[in-house]
């Protein structure tokens, strides 16, 4: 499978068929074994602070959860269901108003029961938050 | 977020606590709003189909649960403490305990420790049965004005 086909598969699997990810308009930037990356476009209805236009924490939480999940999926040797057990987010700086946020999420090889991906989202190019996670 | 603090002053007079959410575009989009429980402030996320994260079960997206736990903490801090600034989230840790069915989610926040600059908040969220939480969270917020904030925040 070439890269374009792979990105199309993950776009359909994680962004277009999961209603909340679709509602957020998440786009797959990259997906390969042990690595996933998504992009969230700035939109007025996702703003938490209408005075500054800074995004709320919630859309970032949902994006980081989704992207860590996709990162885990790239490591699976066969299709199987998995679920988020916990999620920690450190907010390093506010996402800049009007700019998209990107979440590159590497994942180490999972154990038979758990995977712990982490991600560092960024309005290109500054890091903004990270999220280790288990399944 | 002066709009939210002005709204808070109005809501304190009228008692219509749900109107706090109107000052936050994301809360409106997600249908998350505070409401008066029996002697406590609760936050409700009304179910709508855009919240779904797993269409097979079906179950609500974990990210939306994290989002509503965070919003519940913010509404609680605004309403129950005498903060003069909108609390800024520093970090949040969410534990997912059960899959959330496609119905409303309700959350209740409690302040574990309030310091001069930081506040530690615990939040739990449930659906029909309060004794069976679907998710819990611990979060830290900065509650001092911007001038006192560390440069990264």
Top keywords for this entry?
heterodimer, A: 135 residues, alpha+beta, Thiol Ester Dehydrase, Chain A, 3-stranded antiparallel beta sheet, 8 strands, B: 153 residues, two-stranded antiparallel sheet, 3 helices, 25% helix, 33% strand
User: Order of strands side by side in the largest beta sheet of chain A?
Assistant: 1-2-6
Order of helices and strands of chain B: HHEEEEHEEEE
Please state the average pLDDT score of chain B: 91
Please estimate the helix content of chain B: 10-25%
The largest β sheet of chain B comes out as: 6 strands, antiparallel
Please give the oligomerization state of what you see. Answer: heterodimer
Quick check: average pLDDT of chain A?
A: 84
> What portion of residues of chain A is helical?
25-40%
Distance between the termini of chain A: 26 Å
Overview of the structural elements:
The complex is a heterodimer of chains A (135) and B (153). Chain A is of the alpha+beta class and 135 residues long. Helices cover 27% and strands 24% of the residues of chain A. Chain B has 153 residues and is of the alpha+beta class. Chain B is built from three helices and eight strands; from the N terminus they run ααββββαββββ. Chain B has a six-stranded antiparallel β-sheet. Chain B has a two-stranded antiparallel ribbon with strand order 3-4. In chain B, a hairpin with a 4-residue loop joins β1 and β2. Chain B is globular and about 45 Å long. Chain B starts with a helix and ends in an 11-residue tail after the last strand. The chains are: A alpha+beta (135), B alpha+beta (153). Chain A binds chain B through residues 17-23, 44-52, 55-59, 61-66, 83-93, and chain B through 1-4, 23-30, 49-55, 61-64, 66-68, 70-71, 86, 88-96, 99, 152-153. β5 of chain A pairs antiparallel with β5 (88-96) of chain B, so a sheet runs across the interface.
């Amino acid at each position: 499978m070439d890269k374009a086909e792979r990105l199309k598969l993950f776009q359909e699997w994680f962004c277009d068929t999961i209603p909340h990810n679709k509602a957020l308009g998440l786009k797959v930037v990259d997906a390969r074994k042990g690595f996933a990356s998504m992009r969230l476009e700035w939109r007025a209805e996702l703003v938490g602070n209408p005075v500054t236009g800074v995004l709320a924490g919630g859309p970032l939480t949902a994006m980081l959860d989704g992207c860590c999940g996709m990162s885990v999926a790239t490591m699976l040797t066969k299709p199987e269901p998995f679920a988020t057990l916990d999620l920690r987010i450190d907010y390093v700086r506010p996402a800049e108003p009007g700019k998209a946020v990107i979440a590159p999420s590497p994942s180490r090889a999972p154990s038979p029961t758990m995977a712990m991906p982490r991600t560092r989202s960024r309005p290109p190019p500054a890091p903004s938050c990270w999220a280790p996670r288990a399944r | 977020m002066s709009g939210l603090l002005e709204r808070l002053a109005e809501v304190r007079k009228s008692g219509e606590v749900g109107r706090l959410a109107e000052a936050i575009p994301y809360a409106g989009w997600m249908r998350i709003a505070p409401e008066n429980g029996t002697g406590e402030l609760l936050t409700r996320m009304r179910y709508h189909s855009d919240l779904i994260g797993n269409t097979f079960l079906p179950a609500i997206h974990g990210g939306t649960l994290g989002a509503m736990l965070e919003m519940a903490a913010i509404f609680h801090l605004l309403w129950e403490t005498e903060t003069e600034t909108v609390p800024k989230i520093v970090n949040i840790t969410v534990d997912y305990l059960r899959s959330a069915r496609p119905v409303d989610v309700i959350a209740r926040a409690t302040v574990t420790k309030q310091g001069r600059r930081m506040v530690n908040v615990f939040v739990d969220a449930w659906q029909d049965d309060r004794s069976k939480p679907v998710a819990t969270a611990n979060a830290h917020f900065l509650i001092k004005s911007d001038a006192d904030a560390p440069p990264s925040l």
